[in-house]
Amino acid sequence: MATLTELRAKKGFICDMDGVIYHGNKLLPGVKEFVNWLYAEKKPFLFLTNSSERSPRELQQKLERMGLEIDESHFYTSALATAKFLKKQSKKNSVYVIGDAGLTNALYEAGMTINDVDPEYVVVGETHNYNFNNISRAVQLVLRGAKLIGTNPDLTGPGENGIFPACGAMISPIEVATGKKAYFIGKPNPLMMRTGLKMLGLHAQESAIIGDRMDTDMVAGIESGLDTVLVLSGVSTMSTLEEFPYRPNYVLNGVGEIVPE
């Protein structure tokens, strides 16, 4: 069994946000101490989130409101990863989007145009503007040949008031109605992990990933060669571990336990 001493010796960390750093607008216990420790030890770190709602600047400002001052360069989202993927893959640079500003802005900056007539891709991310009309339009466009992309496969996410539906749940009606399966860009897709490691400037063996999900965060780490740290401050519990054929290297109550006493 790996020890906390070995974990603390890692050169850098990739860290999920929802359920690890905060719930909604509430900072989780031990987070400030963990971030202060990362800075004090001069360890490169990256907040790598499957959420596509907010831009890195918005995430930076959100943490600032909670009392954490972290540079914008420490954030990478599934929206940015999706925009990067489509910039390389798309021929027409046209998309129909169901998602919030973090996703649409990332796509605009990658040179994509919004098209609700004959887009090459239908792209779905988390949004508070989810309704029957945009789902129906997406179904029609996919049936006409548009390719279906999801920013991440998460079915649920943790919030201040409990569990809420995430991208995987929101895209499901489109998949069922069209018979088409979405391609998901966020964790555990290695595309996102490779970019994260490149941003850290480290090799997988030198790093650890911290997350609250067995089905995305832990798979991402295992398949990319990083040590895995499951925290029980989000959607997972100890009983959750028994549902999967793999185990994380570490199971902690929260990130605060990484900080030496």
UniProtKB/TrEMBL annotation:
Q: Which residues bind Mg(2+)?
A: 16, 18, 212
Per UniProt, what is one GO molecular function of this protein? metal ion binding
Give its E.C. classification number.
Answer: 3.1.3.-
Question: What cofactors does the UniProt entry give for this protein?
Answer: Mg(2+)
Top-rank taxon = Bacteria
Which protein family is it in?
Answer: Belongs to the HAD-like hydrolase superfamily. NagD family.
Q: Name one Pfam family in it.
A: Hydrolase_like
Name of the featured protein: Acid sugar phosphatase
Q: Which UniProt keywords apply?
A: Magnesium, Metal-binding
Please tell me where substrate binds in this chain: 187
Species of provenance: Christensenella hongkongensis
Instruction: Identify the GO cellular component terms for this protein.
Output: cytoplasm
The note on the cofactor says: Divalent metal ions. Mg(2+) is the most effective.
Described by its record, this protein's role is as follows:
Catalyzes the dephosphorylation of 2-6 carbon acid sugars in vitro.
Q: Which residues form the active site?
A: 16, 18
